[in-house]
Design a protein that fits this description.
Layout: E1 5-12, H1 15-27, E2 33-46, E3 49-63, H2 64-77, E4 85-88, H3 95-106
Antiparallel strand pairs: 1-3, 1-4, 2-3
Length: about 120
């Protein structure tokens, strides 16, 4: 499974929008986990100027079979005009974690009401 695990990296302007989309992708069984890393600062050229923005980095764990659908769905849900969506392929993944991802993708996710 380690060569099957994929990580999608993206960014959002705030935790609320990141959480909403992560929960949506969990509900659709496209990801096993979404990790939100608030507090990032990004600098990039936009519309002729250098922009500084506070962002939330999100790492989403999925598998090879779901990665293309997940990227397409994320593109459709994302509030940015040009969202950062990068697919990462880990060189190695621990066996127990890879098994957990596989199991999590095969089971219905818990809604926020169940937690």
């Amino acid at each position: 499974m380690s060569d099957n695990l994929k990580i999608l990296l993206t960014t959002f302007t705030d935790t609320e929008s990141a959480e909403t989309i992560v929960r949506q992708l969990l509900d659709e069984y496209l990801i096993a986990c979404g990790t939100l890393l608030p507090g990032a600062t990004s600098f990039y050229p936009w519309e002729g100027e250098i922009t500084k923005a506070s962002e939330v980095v999100v790492l989403m764990k999925t598998d090879r079979e779901r990665s293309a659908r997940c990227m397409t769905r994320l593109q459709g849900l994302h509030p940015y005009e040009v969202p950062e969506i990068i697919l990462l392929e880990p060189e190695a993944v621990s066996g127990p974690y890879a098994a957990w991802v596989r199991d999590a993708l095969g089971k219905p996710s818990l809604s926020s009401d169940d937690q």
